[in-house]
Amino acid sequence: MKVTGFSFIRNAIRYDYPVRESLLSLLPLVDELIVAVGNSEDDTLGLVRNIDSRKIRILETQWDDSLREGGRVLALETQKAYEQIEGGDWAFYIQGDEVLHEQDYPAIRSALHQWANDSQTDGLLFDYRHF
């Protein structure tokens, strides 16, 4: 079973996004992690590059700030990362301000295996806490 994670981020340092923790929390569950790093005003690209994992593949992007209204630019950046996925059984999306708890890894892995070959299953839903 192949699981590819994907995410996007821009100006993580400037806006204090816990993107390092976010990506590290997903790495144990994926075979590859694609991160679209937008043109930042800080060293977000360096931050992501310094995460010690061969699983991470960085896609450098340019944000179209004219599409900020309604979050359209966020959807476009998400799509850019998603389109880099090369086959597999699951695509696992995480945002730069989200983290997974390690105690949930066994349940997540179990669900990924259980539903991977079910043609009627499009995805998994998670309960979450928003702080």
Secondary structure category: alpha/beta
Low-confidence residue ranges = none
> How many H/I helical runs?
4
Biggest β-sheet: count, sense, barrel?
4 strands, parallel
Secondary-structure element pattern, one letter each: EHEHEHEH
Shape: globular
Mean pLDDT, nearest integer?
Answer: 95
The tally of strands reads 4
- The radius of gyration computed from the alpha-carbon positions, rounded to a whole number of angstroms, is 15 Å
Which strand order does the major sheet show? 3-2-1-4
Question: Which percent band covers the strand fraction?
Answer: 15-25%
Helix content: 25-40%
N/C terminus separation: 33 Å
Describe the model.
By secondary structure, the chain is of the alpha/beta class. Helices cover 27% and strands 18% of the residues. The longest helix is centred in the middle third of the chain and has 11 residues. The termini are far apart.
What's the short story on this structure?
With 131 residues, this protein is of the alpha/beta class. The chain has helices at residues 19-26, 44-49, 72-82, 105-115; strands at residues 3-9, 32-38, 56-61, 90-93. It is built from 4 helices and 4 strands.
